[in-house]
Structure formats: C-alpha cells, structure tokens
Amino acid sequence: xxxxxxxxxxxxxxxxxxAKAVAKRLGYIYVDTGAMYRAMALHLLRQGVDTGDAAAVSxxxxxxDITISYADGVQQVLLNGENVTGLLRTEEVGNMASVSSANxxxxxxxxxxxxxxxxxxNVVMDGRDIGTCVLPQADVKxxxxxxxxxxxxxxxxxxxxxxxxxxxxxxxxxxxxRDERDMTRAISPLCQAEDAVLVDSSDMxxxxxxxxxxxxxxx
Length: 219
Description:
Distance between the termini: 17 Å
Largest sheet: 5 strands, parallel
Number of strands: 8
Helix content: 40-55%
Radius of gyration: 17 Å
Order of helices and strands: EHEHHEEEHHEHEHHEH
Number of helices: 9
CATH architecture of the largest domain: 3-Layer(aba) Sandwich
C-alpha cells in the first residue's frame, strides 16, 4: 500500500523546494506535477498554439508524450523523448502553464499519469489541486502558502542571483494575477482541502517548513 503526501499552494510558495526535501528525508519519490504541466506548456508554445482556442489546445495536448524518469536520484522530465528539465522554469512557460492547465483535456491526461504513479509508489506530490482532486485520499495533506509580497521577494532574489534584470513590483503583480486566475478557474481551482494542514511560510525558514511537514507524516 503506497503512502501519499499532497502539498498544495499558490505560485511561489516554495512547494517544489519543500516537497523535494521532504521526499528525500522520508525516502519517497518526489513527483513535480508543476513540471509536468510546464512540459505541456512548453509543448504548446513550441506548437504555436493560441491558448484562447480551447479546441486547438486539446488537439495539441494529445500529441504530447510527457514522462518522468530518474537519473542518480534526480527527477528528469521528458517531452516527446527530449529531456526538457532545464527549460521549464522560465516566466513564459510558467504563465502558459497557468493558462493551459485549465483545459480539461490537458488536465485529464496528466492527472491519469500522476494517479498511476502514486498508486504504486510512496510519493510526495505538489501542485495546485493535489489534495482536492488528484490524490483526494492522500495520507497527509498540506496547504503551503506565504504572503504575495514575501513570494515576490523570494522570486526577485532568485532572479537577481541569476543575474537577470527584474522589477519587484511587476513580479508581485504577476503573482497576484496568477493567484486570481488559479483560484477562480472553472476546473479544479486552487483551494485548501478541508482536511489539509495550513502552513504559512512567510516567517519560517525552509528547514522549519520541511520539519513541520515531515513530522506530519510520522504521526
């Protein structure tokens, strides 16, 4: 019987960083659902699909083969046989993923892959609707969040460290717009599951968040 930990929350809350660390600490498999949606978004961008054309998005999504493999314990995301792991964290791909993930055909295809993996392996899975839709029977559910200002500052510092020019106010505005889009979409909107534990990381260190979630799994 597999053990499932679901971590949901808004963009920039640190879900991926925390989920990876929790999985490593517990010896579970980390499933980055956001990376899978980003891979689909990259596919749509490469196909030049207009996100306003739902039929075109649905048709293009059917031709995307997205899989996850591991090399030396590190997750690799494959799009049509190509390792695209290093191409998934751009703002363009992130914004496309937020829009295209609302398409029911895109979601149906990816959710099926995610559920199959969780059924056979102990997993830590993060995303926007893991505890509410993808793994509603997860053993542990967490809603990880932080203030928009805090999330924007983290993203700003990350981009600055990479030598990329950016504007803090613009980043925060983008985060607020993405939150609104994710929370109000018709299909599987971002929300806290009734039985999820709320973890606000605004004033917590990464290690404190990791320990908090790992301790929930040990109960």
